[in-house]
Automatic annotation (TrEMBL):
This is Succinylglutamate desuccinylase/Aspartoacylase catalytic domain-containing protein. The keyword Lipid metabolism does not apply. Residues 48-158 form the Succinylglutamate desuccinylase/Aspartoacylase catalytic domain. Its cofactor is Zn(2+). It holds the Pfam family AstE_AspA_cat. It comes from Candidatus Litorirhabdus singularis. Keywords: Hydrolase, Metal-binding, Zinc.
Amino acid sequence: MVLTVWEQPSAAAVAPRVSDFLCDLPGPVAIHLHGHDRSRCRVLVTLLHGNEPSGLEAVHQWLRSGKQPAVDTVFIIASVAAARTEPLFYFRQLPGKRDLNRCFSPPYTDNEGLLAQAILQHIDQCQPEAVIDIHNTSGSSHGFAVATSDTPAARCLVGLFVDYLIITDLQLGSLMEQPLACPVVTIEAGGALDDAADFVASAGLGRYLMAPHVFAEERPLTLFQHPYRLELLQHSRIDYADHGLRDRDVTIRKDIERYNFAALEAGAALGWLGEEGLTHLQVVAGDCSHPVEEFFQVRDGILSARSRLHLFMATTRADIAASDCLFYFVTEPVPVSES
Ligand SMILES: [Zn+2]
């Protein structure tokens, strides 16, 4: 079976250390807990990416507490093999394999696709009222949420965890894009190495599991609509430094993570480009690409934004920048009050 079901584990059956708990798992697993109200179910998915441990930490803490959730609860822990490949919690996916959170759209042909399909089928069988998918960003960041549409239900779920919501129509093959029969939101709890991210995940998980009704209360959120992705072209070379590197097509300033959720002013240096300038970069939104020159410029080899931008998910992991993207950005956020 691609996804093993583990029914009602006792607190004593869960290893005290999260690393031991991870190593004890049979592989991708769905852990079922009985709630006070057995007529409803909520799902929490985590570790779709093996290098993003905050959701697993929160699940582990909950299981060790022995508490009973308000309604039936299913924890789906996915990329167990990638997470426990040494060094622990380093690999987003196993080397040479596809990113699991890009595999949820058919066809399901390889092992990652089949696991994604099994997760979708399991969620479908559970008929949950909500699905939360907890991740970490690779770089240090505030916690934020991502959803495909701005609905009252999505805002209620997001408000249990964080204050920022990004609405995206990017079609990447992620879990939240799939036509599930209930609201689904992605929580980026914060940087994989940030202690605050573990707190965001565990405090939010506690609220998600304890609330008798998760759609009862909306909290004010700041909304970012339809971000763009700045991507590196295949075979282009990128690295991070405090000056331009000769043997790289793109060098990004090594303190780029401090611009996550902070404004990046027009003209402020983002990094340095080689002789071929902007040709190694592309900007993507939705299904279409935009001219890089619309948002970015290069002067004397220095890369900067043409207008004020807000960045998120900026990382200094060159492998992740190359395989996924350098960062997401929007031109200005929209404050939203309670409605
Ligand atoms: Zn992730």
